[in-house]
Amino acid sequence: MCDGKSAAQMERDLRRSIRKHGWALQYVESGIDEYDVYPAYCYSVGHTAKGLPELVVTGRVADQSAQVLNDLGSWQASGLDLRPGDRHTAGGLDVYLVEVRECESWLLGAVALFGRIHALQAVWADCRGLLPWEGAEDSTIVQPLLGPPRNGTGAP
User: Fold this and answer.
1) CA–centroid distance for 81 within its chain
2) Among the listed residues 27, 31, 39, the one whose alpha carbon sits nearest the alpha carbon of residue 144
3) 3-state SS string over 17-71?
4) What pTM did the predictor assign?
5) What is the mean pLDDT, run by run of 10 residues, along the chain of 156 residues?
6) β-strand 54-58 against 93-99: which pairing, if any?
7) What Cα–Cα distance (Å) separates residue 12 from each residue in 6, 9, 69, 79?
8) How far apart are CA 101 and CA 23, in angstroms?
9) Residue ranges covered by each domain of the chain
10) How far apart are CA 150 and CA 22, in angstroms?
11) CA 138/CA 86 separation, integer angstroms
12) Coil vs helix vs strand at 15
């Protein structure tokens, strides 16, 4: 648990933030174990209560992740229908939305509060404007893809 908090304390904090702001953000630090490297990621908790997808971004620092997710979250709360294959500029990054396949593996706080959820990943373009699947080199080590690009290619 984060900062030594119990599961009950974490849930209480998430619910408090959702009541105050409409959603909460959960940042997960990067880590390394004997099998792999796990990049940091951040996801929303609370959009599900309004029938909207939760949002997630991988491979960015906490502040930038929060900017991306808060921009997207604000837009969808205002009525913008976010869909897989959409491209937006959020938090200063060019992002492409991908359907998350296994929310239960990544968005633990949202699943704990709401059970079955739906989520979109904001996949960010690199400094050349390329998405992970568009360059000559696979860049999914820093930014793991939690679902396939639309039509498997990233093409809108």
Assistant:
1) 16
2) 39
3) HHHHHCCEEEEECCEECCCCEECCEEEEECHHHHCCCEEEEECCCHHHHHHHHHH
4) 0.88
5) 71 88 91 72 96 96 96 97 96 97 92 95 93 76 84 49
6) unpaired
7) 10, 5, 21, 28
8) 21
9) 2-152
10) 29
11) 21
12) helix
The residue whose two tokens read 């709360």 is 77
pLDDT of amino acid 93: 96
Kindly state the tokens that stand for 147: 């679902």
Hey, what amino acid is at 12? R
Residue 12 CA to chain centroid, in angstroms? Answer: 21
In degrees, to the nearest 5, what angle opens at C-alpha 30 toward C-alphas 144 and 109?
80
Residue 17 has a CB neighbour count (10 Å cut-off) of 16
d(CA 116, CA 147) in angstroms, rounded, equals 17
Phi, psi torsion values for 57, nearest 5 degrees: -135, 140
Q: How many CB atoms lie within 10 A of CB 91?
A: 20
Q: Cα–Cα distance between 61 and 41 in angstroms, integer?
A: 8
